[in-house]
UniProtKB/TrEMBL annotation:
Occurrences of domain CREG-like beta-barrel (ranges): 23-191
GO CC terms, sorted: cytoplasm; endomembrane system; extracellular space
Keywords, alphabetical: Glycoprotein, Secreted, Signal
Pfam families: CREG_beta-barrel
Signal peptide: 1-21
Encoding gene (name): Creg1
Subcellular locations according to the entry: Secreted
Family in the record: Belongs to the CREG family.
InterPro entries tied to this protein: CREG, CREG_beta-barrel, Split_barrel_FMN-bd
Coarse class of the protein's main subcellular location: secreted
Entry protein name: CREG1 protein
Amino acid sequence: MAGLTLLCVTAALLLLASGGAIPPPEEAARMARFVLHNCDWGALATLSAQEGLRGQPFANIFSLSDGPPGPLGGSGVPYLYLTDMEISVQDLEINSNASLTVSLAQTPYCKKHKYDPQNPLCAHIIFCGSIVKVNDSEAGLAKKALFSRHPEMESWPKDHNWFFAKFNITNIWVLDYFGGLKIVTPEEYYSVKP
């Protein structure tokens, strides 16, 4: 009983300290949406296809967006702007499976509360799935999502043959509180708003 009371008090303090913006720990699907929507980049891990590293995990940083900034802008879909010239994209051409990690450590939230990036209260989300090119009907949405947060992308060299892609989520793990990872299904994830 004392543990449950402590959990409720801690959740309430988190909500008050953040101005009510961060979801409480018992709402893992909302937390996953919240963290993704508030992050502008993530660590994408692929299985390397490069000589000397073939089959080894390889993590790289990518700018991403699930929609324009603001409380109503997030779709939950992580969009990326990619080129075949990039080493991780070359890995994805051989095996499109990947994992993507995003963390509130990249926002002011964790520093404000003096949370180390490894502290569970500095929430991070791990997505597993695959990277797929978006179709023509989704390209406008991906472009708006990415260019609204990363305006520099519009001026990147055209001869690099950039294309819009999305992370097709199959599994989600949330670490936002003590006690281990929480599993969220894609259905639960997409059914809530951040």
